[in-house]
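Encode chain A's predicted structure.
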Amino acid sequence: MKLRIHGTALRLRLNQAEVAQFSKTGWIEEALEFGPDATLSYTLESLASVAAPRAIYGNGVLKIQVPAGAANEWITTDQVGIRGSQEIAAGKQLAILIEKDYRCAHNPEPDPHAYPNPELETSSTKME
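Encoded structure for chain A:
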């Protein structure tokens, strides 16, 4: 699971294996170690009690929570992502995006578990 943070936006990208795990458990976690006693953990959780995607941070853990219904639709269809936002201050929003990770055309060592990239499929089909 890849985490991208840019300004006031969070984006998670999950490959096929990670989506399969998330489908079974409703939860997935990754961690980034900076050194002894310095770790940033981040999770994606599917919860029936959540009405919209939200992010919660505390004690070195970033939890991104999504409604169970939205997660199930994302997992079981060709839907690329789940998008949401939450207010973080007066007039400021945190954008949240959870996406299926597609194969990158520019990576010499692509993730074998990444989803087939529809743009690459289309362009290779056009060339034949």
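The CA atoms of residues 40 and 58 lie 10 Å apart.
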